[in-house]
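Input (structure):
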């Protein structure tokens, strides 16, 4: 499906202007484009066409909801992966900080090795109840 965005306020005296006018008409009798006016008249005045239009709109709404759920799942999966990656990186930094502390390195050296501040190293070590 292709989507096209058009300025709905466009009202020049040309085909696009007439189309924008007709799309905003609530009264089909005031529509300019004859084919569109006749189609809308059928939909609004004949019971069979009303039912068909309702069914089409319901199917479209179901499709859009399904598409929205699918997109939501994809976003959730991506966010979960990113969060997992961040958590893994944090756990790796904690492990390195703990090991370097056990090896006798000072906070400044550990912070340089981990490319983070001394306060961050202290936080990492505190999460494992260690300090230097």
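Output (sequence):
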């Amino acid at each position: 499906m292709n989507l096209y965005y058009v300025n709905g306020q466009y009202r020049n005296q040309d085909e696009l202007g007439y189309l924008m006018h007709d799309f905003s008409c609530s009264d089909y009798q005031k529509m300019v484009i004859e084919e569109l006016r006749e189609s809308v008249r059928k939909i609004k005045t004949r019971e069979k066409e009303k039912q068909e239009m309702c069914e089409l709109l319901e199917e479209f709404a179901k499709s859009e909801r399904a598409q929205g759920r699918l997109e939501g799942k994809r976003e959730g999966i991506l966010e979960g992966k990113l969060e997992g990656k961040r958590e893994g990186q944090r756990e790796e930094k904690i492990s390195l900080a703990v090991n370097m502390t056990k090896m006798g390195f000072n906070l400044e050296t550990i912070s340089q090795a981990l490319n983070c501040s001394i306060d961050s190293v202290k936080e990492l070590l505190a999460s494992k109840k260690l300090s230097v």
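Notes: The two ends are 61 Å apart (CA to CA). The CA atoms of residues 54 and 128 lie 61 Å apart.
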